[in-house]
Amino acid sequence: MVSVIIRNYNGKEIIENCLESILNTNYPNYEIIIVDNGSTDDSLDLVIRRFCSSNRIRIVRNERNVGIAMANNIGAKVAKGDYLVFLDNDIEVDPE
User: Fold this and answer.
1) Which residues contact 56 (CB under 8 A, 6 or more apart)?
2) Alpha-carbon distances, residue 38 vs 7, 10, 58 (angstroms)
3) Is 91 helix (H, G, I), strand (E, B) or coil?
């Protein structure tokens, strides 16, 4: 399994496209972990409303912005995959 770890900080305008592209990929064996760094723009609410019906998505909430490296480490600690993929929240992946 692959664990896709996405850091989010106030990404309301971009995270939706990122998640849609991952969920529409042809690769079958993955989970998505969103590490939210204390967003204040309702981006986390958007993710919950729009995407959390998918059992592939897990959310880790940080109360404050802990930075890129720490957020990646937090995501890695909860990941269940054999492989880790770290993506920024503005990335869109190809279906293949």
Assistant:
1) 23, 30, 31, 32
2) 11, 8, 16
3) coil
